[in-house]
Structure formats: C-alpha cells, structure tokens
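Supplementary material to the annual report.
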Amino acid sequence: EPEVTQTPSHQVTQMGQEVILRCVPISNHLYFYWYRQILGQKVEFLVSFYNNEISEKSEIFDDQFSVERPDGSNFTLKIRSTKLEDSAMYFCASSGGGGLTDTQYFGPGTRLTVL
Amino acid sequence: ILNVEQSPQSLHVQEGDSTNFTCSFPSSNFYALHWYRWETAKSPEALFVMTLNGDEKKKGRISATLNTKEGYSYLYIKGSQPEDSATYLCAPDLSTGFQKLVFGTGTRLLVSP
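Predicted assembly:
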C-alpha cells in the first residue's frame, strides 16, 4: 500500500541553524501539507501546497519557513534559522485531491530537536 | 481560535469492552470531519472522513457518527482488543479553501488483555 515517507526520523540541530525536512508524498497525489506537534500540545496545521504554490498557511508559518517541491517526488520544509520553540514533531501529509472527502495521508513524522 | 475538544483525554478498558469517545467542534464553517488512529512512532492512520449531518461510517468494529448542527462526532469501538490501543484524533476541516485540519487533543485508549 502506498505511504508517505519522511526523512530523517530525528534531527538535532543548534539554534540558528537551517534545517530541511524531507517528505515523499504518495506518488499520484496533488496536495501536500505540513503539520507539527509540540510535545504535549495539539497537532497544528502549518501549510498546504498545490500546483507548486502555497495554498494556505497558518500564523505559525512565518518568513523563517518555506516549502518546496524540488522535483517530482520530494516535498520539503525548510526552517531558515531555527529557534528553541521550533522543537516539535513535524508531519507531512498528502491527498489525491483537495475536495471535502479526500483523505490526508500522513507520514510518520520527523522529530526536530533544537538545542 | 477554533476550539476542537475531545473527551475523555484517556481511557483504560478491558478486552471485550465497548467504548466511545466524543469530539466537539465549532459548527460554523464546517466542511468535513476526519478521524485518525495514531500509534506511537507510526503514521496517523485515516479512519473516516465525514461530511453530512447524520453521517454514519463503519470500519470493522469501529464506527462514527456526525452531528454538524450541534458540532459533535462520536467514535465507537465494539469489543475492544489490545491492538485498538492508540490515540484517536479528530480533525474537522474548518477551512474556506483547501483542507486545513484542526486537530483535537486526542483520546488515548489503552485496552488491557
């Protein structure tokens, strides 16, 4: 069964460093998302992406964040200058369409630890 | 702030017990409700997507109902098994454009043999 994959599973970085989190969505999907969960808190929406453009983003997704689909398979989340409060589990998701009943399929997450 | 609440926060039942959880959400700007099952260190697994008031969905021993007018959904598990132990997340889609799921805190279920 097709699945969303994410690498690395755990990333440790120093405050102020740039990190790139990678995701391979399900191959025929057209809509891509990033969510995050800070330890002990709810899963929060960050951004949705379609047709090589950001469709919607949350207040969390400020200028320090960017997303890209550099080729036909990868979908990346870049944090330019990490802060301690960026430490969280980051989930990538994809869906075949953006319709009401389309399921978002999630990857297993990347745990980001900022020291 | 869009408030999605799930109750109870955690639940411990014996194998064979039936159980249910609640998800409450703002009834305005509602488009769809997603339920996920999430085991630690694994990907959240999609269970249901529901859109219409009165919708009922079933997958094996798990079923869900939806009331969009009052803003709640129930998830039922009949005859719980240890492998049902997981966190169950509800996520309404309250966006005006592309899917933007707003997650609840989850209900952590533990089923003892």
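Chain A has a mean pLDDT of 94.
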